[in-house]
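cron nightly-structures :: item 1 of 1
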Amino acid sequence: MSLITLVSIVSAYIPSKLTYSTLISRPRVDSPAIQYYSRILKVEPEVLTPHQLRKLESSGRKVFLARKAISDERPHQAEKIYVDIIDQNLSRPKEEINLPELAATTLLLALQQQRNNDKKAARSTFNNFFKIATEFYSDETTIRTNPSTDHEHEDCICGCGKGCTARVIQAFALFESKNKLRPKSKFLIKRAIEYDRNLESILKWKMFEDVDRQHVIS
């Protein structure tokens, strides 16, 4: 049987609208890595484009490996994976930094560091993100052109705008409140609200109202 004949036979069983790129380019949405990471980023993988799914799967594999390292009682290996993801993200040109991914990985890393009772490392992780986000959003040109901050762009998969940043700063604020640094905590919550007005009700929490009372008394 000639090669031409073989190709003709195979082609007969492939729908005309199904291209080669379609066959190989779309990852399975039910893969463990995609399912796990999509829950972290709060996205529905079924509605993502093949390009977005590939990016989700690439980062998801690494995050899934970190999760396995934690379950295997290798927490420091998990931290190393998170740090590698962050470093790889930050090695890109500023306009190509994926802020939602950076935010999600920062939360995972800081949480693991707190589990390891390493408050100094967790604070450093939060501080680094806070500085990056502050610089990132201080440049309006970057905000307009960066894929990760434009919910209509092909690369953005969570569509949260500045919500990802707000969630990290909120976690930073709660971390500092837990460590008795209430004034700093309230400052951070106010910064988080600048990124996401939906967080305004948090200022009514007792821990933050007490900061104002103590300030008046002093």
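cron nightly-structures :: done
The CA atoms of residues 7 and 13 lie 10 Å apart.
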